[in-house]
Amino acid sequence: MTVARLSKFKKATATTSCGRQKSGHEPERTSARISSVAPSASKVQSNNQSKDKPSDARSLLVLLVYTAAIFVSALLLFSVQPLFTKMVLPRLGGSPAVWSVAMVFFQSLLLAGYAYAHLLMQIKSRAIVVAVHLVLLVAAFATLPLSISTSFGELPGSAYAFWLLGLFAMSIGLPFFALAANNPMLQAWFVRSGHPAGSDPYFLYASSNIGSFIALLSYPLLVEPMALLRSQNLMWTAGYALLILLIAGCGALLMRAPANVAALTAEDRDAPVPSWLTRARWVLLAAVPAGLLIAVTAHISTDVAAAPLLWVLPLSLYLLTWVLVFQSRPLLPHNWMLMLQPLAIAGVVVLLALGSEQNLLLTLGAHQLCFFVIAMACHGELARTRPPAKCLTGFYVALSFGGMLGGLFAGLISPYAFSWVAEYPILLAMAALCRPSADERWPRWSRWYWVPLAALAIALIAPTYRGTEALFAHLELHRVWVAGSVGVLSALAALALNASRWKLFATVVLALVLIRLYPADEGRVETVRSFFGVHKIMVTQHGQYHVLMHGTTIHGAQKFHNDDGSPIEGKPEPITYYHKDGGIGQVIAAIRERKATPLRIAVIGLGAGSLTCAAEPGETWKFFEIDQTMVDTARNPKYFTYITDCDPDVKPVIGDARLTFAKEPDDIYDLIIVDAYSSDAIPIHLATEEAMKIYKSKLAPQGAVVMHVSNRHLELESVVVGIADANDLKSWVYNEDSERDNQYIFSTDVVVCAREEADIGNLASSDKWVETEPTDGQRNWTDDYSNILGAVYRRLGFGA
Q1: Which of 1, 99, 400, 792 is surrounded by the fewest CB atoms within 10 Å?
Q2: What's the pLDDT score for residue 311?
Q3: What 3-state DSSP class applies to 428?
Q4: Do 761 and 593 contact (CB within 8 A), yes or no?
Q5: 736/548 Cα distance (integer angstroms)
């Protein structure tokens, strides 16, 4: 590229980025703009510099030190997120919502760090800027190693999210704030360092995100399975010390840079300041993927486990999009992503319409692939419209502000504003508005796009009104495919007609409304939402069963009518996993027969209250439950009558069972039933050696612990056997298919642990209960160590 052509190009780009934005996407210009850090641009910059140009050796040193500092900073910034959140999980029952709130905290503090960098760089004196930032880093280092602030006591009865935000702020606020400022700060220093590529430092943003990506992906695959939390903490602290030295080196190089170096080209210096409309679009383009990140993470982690493995997968993809769009030569061209974006949106519509998470690979893969494409399209627009280097810190403030808004909406506002997970479809529709304006003239016949769309909307929404059900009864039978087809056809039509973002937005909204009007669930559904998730109460046809669900997992059910339609009379019978013939029912009966006197039983997890009807006169049952809304639901006779009919005076202990149960007197319980599930997600801290030690300490002589470990995605029997063996307890495993799923009586995976065979009565001689030894070579889960990936592999039949 000649000097004249490059100058002409940079002038056009500066006008597009900093001034009034041009309509349409410009794929050729995008590629050229992003490649402005290529050697040709550096040569032009070098030709325009004075005789004070730094030597090639110094330029290489500057590049290496700054790149290393930004890389290490990003590595620390994103490795601390799963590390510290895992430390906090036991305080909040292992709820997947902990990560959502943590993301709100991290995104908010990222905005604070970017704003601090923006304001600090307004100071003319290099020495003051460097000194202030180094003092901040050293002060933050003085608070390490990481630990949970002692000023926060037990979990409050409500406002969990705000309590958690305060806990994060007091515990890691200062170190994270200092890290958050490094990326824009160091890039701004690089602009003033005299390096030939200083006029366009955005390639360093890719370096930052590569460090972030490596940190996140390595955590569940390498760090978590191999290192204890204590070791991880010490390694992170050592990395922070290294970072301070690297940033001090960056500061020294900045101080020694020529005072009269021309870091910016004339075109960049003269480029107009971005308009407020441009800044608002930056905020939107950053907010939608950030909000979708939290929504997708919550969606996939609800049905597996609240664990770093499932947190970091979407976040890694999110960071990978930043790496790809800020590359000198993008591997995935932006115009390709814009073409795929409507299809990705349609893909999520279909997934939501299906409403099934039975397939782990579908859940993890399809949702994340669609999310990746949508994020690539949004972040590609940000890369295309980025401003010249003089507006760098302001640009990053806009990005972080958008990220914070998206996080606040998905992580804090939505759980209180909606009784169902509405943020996912809302943000999906907003993604359609992130497309650039079409830069080609629409075909004349595309103006009629609204007519068939309106007709389709009327035809599909009409069945919800009384009197038209019979006419459109077929929609009830095929609602999933109808809603999914609308999503797919709207995406294809938008591409074929080169439709505007507003037309795509309207069709996506229609498809999502249909999903809500014609849900995949059979029968009537009510939803109740709390910090710990969304609970659905489903009433089957003719009101025969009331079913409590969290995600796609049934927590309990009650039969209200016989097959002939007559109401059930008398004391309700526990069903689902708690039927008298199931694993838990057999354990209760065996311990009761062995002792021959009234039992004292503790139950961790209330569910629909089914086990209150398993008690016999004279027995003492105590329930432990973290979610007050679950207690309220179980008490409401509109939904379930187990508690009303069997134990109306029951008063569950509210709070995380790991903390509340530890306060119980030692040696008093004949049986401890651990059934604390949030959908298929497991509270990991209730399945560790330390947790089993607490359970054992509360057992009376000849007492037993039974753990319900049914899970579609994780193999947990060997985990329980291992932690029991570490506490000198023997284990027996039960797994039998009831073949009565149509009656809501399910097969269960159960492990009962006791000191001796005699403690579990006739179960020890039953061929349905298999005494099981720990798996050779399998490391036990502790408060410092867990391996979700290994449990997934074992469930898939790969061992590990």
Answers
A1: 1
A2: 65
A3: helix
A4: yes
A5: 23
CB-neighbour burial class of residue 475 (10 A; exposed 0-12, middle 13-18, buried 19+):
buried
Q: What is the mean pLDDT of residues 578-583?
A: 90
Query: Tokens 């399998």 sit at which residue?
Result: 778
Q: How far is CA 433 from CA 97, 111, 240, 324, in A?
A: 28, 24, 40, 22
111-162 confidence digits (pLDDT tens): 899 889 989 988 889 999 999 999 999 999 999 998 887 766 666 666 778 8
- 90 contacts: CB under 8 Å, gap ≥ 6: 656, 658, 659, 683, 685, 783
Task: For CA atoms 168, 172, 173, 176, give the dihedral sign.
Answer: negative
Query: Residues 146, 152, 155, CA angle at the centre, nearest 5°?
Result: 115
Q: 3-class DSSP state for residue 257?
A: coil
Cβ-Cβ contacts under 8 Å for 695 (sequence gap 6 or more):
661, 672, 674, 705
C-alpha distances (whole Å) from 729 to each of 705, 725, 778 are 10, 5, 17
Which one, of 617, 524, 463, 14, lies nearest residue 271 by Cα?
Answer: 14
With the C-alpha atoms ordered 656, 660, 666, 671, is the resulting torsion angle positive or negative? Answer: negative
pLDDT tens column, 526-568: 778 777 777 888 888 778 899 998 766 788 899 999 888 888 8
Q: Specify the 3-state DSSP secondary structure of 577.
A: coil
Per-residue pLDDT at 37 = 37
User: In whole numbers, what is the pLDDT of the chain averaged over residues?
Assistant: 78
Check: CB of residue 379 under 8 Å from CB of residue 289: yes
Strands (E), 8-153: none
Q: How confident is the model at residue 482 (pLDDT cuts 50, 70, 90)?
A: low
Q: Are 683 and 93 in contact (CB under 8 A)?
A: yes
**Pairing of the two strands 669-674 and 699-708:** parallel
In this predicted model, what pLDDT tens digit does every residue of 652-661 receive, in sequence order?
998 888 888 9
| Tokens read off for 423 | 């943020």
Beta strands at 730-736 and 748-754: parallel, antiparallel or unpaired:
antiparallel
pLDDT at 21 over 90: no
Q: What kind and span of H or E run contains 754? A: strand 748-754
- CA pair distance 429, 513, nearest whole angstrom: 11
d(CA 214, CA 239): 15
Extract the tokens encoding 674: 């651990």
Q: How far is CA 262 from CA 4, 34, 46, 253, in A?
A: 19, 21, 10, 16
Is residue 741 within 8 Å of 717, Cβ to Cβ? no
Strands 524-530 and 533-539, bridge-based pairing: antiparallel
% the chain with pLDDT above 70: 74
Residue type at position 611: L
The three-state secondary structure class of 433 is coil
E-state strands within 239-390: none
275-304 pLDDT, tens digit per residue, is 888 889 999 999 999 999 988 887 776 654
**Burial category of 142 from C-beta neighbours within 10 Å (exposed 0-12, middle 13-18, buried 19 and up):** exposed
φ, ψ dihedrals at 142, nearest 5°: -65, -20
Q: What is the CA radius of gyration of the chain?
A: 30
Tokens of 422: 């509405």
Residues forming a β-bridge with 748: 736
pLDDT digits (tens, 9 = 90+) for 629-652: 889 999 999 999 999 999 999 999
C-alpha to C-alpha distance for 604 and 623, rounded to whole angstroms: 6
Q: What is the C-alpha end-to-end distance of the chain, expressed in Å?
A: 55
Please report the pLDDT score of residue 53 as a whole number: 53
Q: Phi and psi for 703 in degrees, rounded to 5?
A: -80, 170
Return the number of other C-beta atoms located less than 10 Å from residue 560's C-beta.
Answer: 17
Contact 91, 168 (CB under 8 A): no
